[in-house]
Amino acid sequence: MHRSIIRPEIQDFKPYSPGLSIEEIKERYNLPTVIKMASNENPLGTSPLVQRVIKKQAGFSFRYPRPGSPELTKAIAQRYNLPQQDIVLGNGSDEIIDLLIRVTAHPDKDNIIICQPSFSIYRMQARLCGVELRKVPLNNDFSFPWSDLLKSSDEQTKLVFVTNPDNPSGHAAHVQDILAFASQLPQNCLLVLDEAYMEFADPQDEFSPLPQWSKTENIVCLRTFSKMYGLAGLRLGYGLMPPWLSEALLKVKLPFSVNILAEQAGIASLEDKEFSQLVFETIKHERTYLKKELARLNCTTFPSQANFLMFRPPIPAKQVFERLLAQGIIIRPLDSYGLSDFIRVSIGNENENRVFIKAMESIIC
Ligand SMILES: *Cc1c(COP(=O)(O)O)cnc(C)c1O
After folding, report:
1. For the domain 3-46+274-364, what is the CATH code?
2. Which atom of ligand 1 has the smallest separation from the CA of 194?
3. How much is the average pLDDT of 219-237?
4. 48-272 has CATH 3.40.50.300 classification
5. Is residue 77 within 6 Å of ligand 1 at its C-beta?
6. How many A from CA of 162 to the centre of ligand 1?
7. pLDDT grade, residue 14 (50/70/90)?
8. How many whole angstroms separate alpha carbon 205 and alpha carbon 250?
9. Which end of the chain has fewer beta carbons closer than 10 Å to its terminal beta carbon, N or C?
């Protein structure tokens, strides 16, 4: 037996490049505390109500979950006034991205379109499926290149991925532009709107088609519990899509990919409106603070509707990244997005952001 049995496209597969971990950096620099502002996690942690529910549910861990997570599906449908049949829950929205590609695109025949740069999971799952990937560069101001996306599409295009608000720039497109774009796509092509950060946009209705969901036809919306709801480690996300498509995804999805604790935590996190309101207000306030302070330090910042900021520092980004690390602060360099002059910093809590700015002052001034 030999590694030649592995498919060639997997032999040179570029894996996901995650943010560095706190433990790794504590060890490397022998530091007692490390701040992580690299993976857009929730700076207020997990809601106390959710933590109580998880503890209470621990004893049911020996049970298999119900396929399709009907209790949580119902809670989401009620919360957003959506038909239950349109919802597919997954092990993070990553699982829904993977399923969408595998269910719609024929290997060696169909293509999918992504923006360049964009979230790497779209590229990875398309490659794994042997589906042609068409990359369309973003506009210089990081807005979406609507007419170039249309020009790249043809009868074999099954999916166009657009992240709104976008990662890593934070740019958000207006819903009118999105609906106009969707209406011009080829007949058998779906627009996949990855709204992982939409709960941070202000106001959401200006950017998301969710309030007018019943009027959309060829749109899939992806949402996650990883960011606003602070459940990144439990793995929970969902897709909203026409019922003929959700039916297909549910047929092939591994039945127990959403576990019992994640389902109950999801329900509780939708109930804890006080917590999500506090997260929203904190992010909004702290994003303004960071933007102002970074501008004072001669960094070029970009408008963001998400829980992170992208900026270009006045000295090489790699230097900033390494010096912050040595001070126990992890941020995200953007080499893997092809943006090596830029940095993405997740909005932290009040204390984290002040520690970060102080460190930036010592590095840049
Ligand atoms: C964080 C993120 C997600 C969420 O992924 P999960 O699998 O739900 O944790 C999806 N899309 C983008 C662009 C993201 O940044």
Report:
1. 3.90.1150.10
2. 11
3. 98
4. no
5. no
6. 13
7. confident
8. 29
9. N
